[in-house]
User: Fold Succinate--CoA ligase [ADP-forming] subunit beta from Parvularcula marina.
Amino acid sequence: MNIHEYQAKELLKSYGAPVAQGAIVLDAGNAEAAASTLPGPLYVVKSQIHAGGRGKGKFKEADAGEKGGVRLAKSPAEAAEEARKMLGHTLVTKQTGPEGKVVNRVYIEDGADIDRELYLSLLVDRSSGKVAFIASTEGGMDIEEVAEETPEKILTLPIDPSGMTDEDAARLCDALKLEGDARADGMALMPILYKAFVETDMAMLEINPLIVMENGRVRVLDAKVGFDPNAEFRHPDIQKLRDETEEDPLELRAAEFDLSYVKLDGNIGCMVNGAGLAMATMDIVKLYGAEPANFLDVGGGATKEKVTEAFKIITSDPGVQGILVNIFGGIMRCDVIAEGVIAAVKETGLAVPLVVRLEGTNVELGKDIINKSGLNVIAANDLDDAAQKIVAAVK
Assistant:
């Protein structure tokens, strides 16, 4: 689960991290009053969407202006005007894709005199089995670009689960070249971030940039936070921060039925049981020259109703030109899959080619159910055969 920048900053502020004063705006009519609560004289107006690259993004609508999703203003009235131009308009960044995201919230923040921009993040490092800091003096840039061009400017520091030490904080401050007041701020900030990360079950915390201001103090200028979905039940307060308008409607619908679904950009809808088999299915679809439209794992104990809903979700995607059902019945029974597919096809109608490959528990019964259904279904003997048939059918 991801949250907005302003929410991330409020969370970090509650742990003691230094952030600027700011005000969230949902209605352009309230923007000037909101900006007037800030010290000024410089105001930063930030579109709030779950995507990076906002500052370099472009709005689709001409009346939003030529500037990106992060703009400077020199008065509350000017800040309100920039907020008006953003709200309700579609911002396209390198992370949103060409469809972009509609800006429903704008954050107006007190400006800062920046001396240096730094990069700092925390994530779960699978190679070490620990939470790790990533620090670089190259703030304001994509960390992937820094890693490719100047990897020596990045420090990755795994933290022992027993807790963060002063030595760990000092190494990070050294990597960021913090001195004087900035170093004192950094030494205080590092354990704050680690504590917030662990206590709230974050999966990722990225501060880009972390700035050193001209007065020598450190401030969190931007913050991106994502939480481990497996731990959400422990944090009802954080669950309340969820903004479902930022999430794909089909993925939200799938979650209601406990389906693992991720929408992709391809044209072959895939319904599979088991994450590994789903990945293999997507790979072989690509191998034969097509692109998967989704990742969808119905799980090992799916019911007829669950399978029916999964099929309906796939067919709700207008980009789907063909469907591949690939089931290996271990715990999952092939006859249940067959009944679910038939129910869904009868309910929604089938306007695209459908290839079904069944193997495992009750496979003959499942095949018999499909064969006697009267549906126009292409049968496949194995995964390779299924992938070739669905790609050929779509082409």
Remarks:
- The mean pLDDT is 91.
- The longest strand covers residues 114-125.
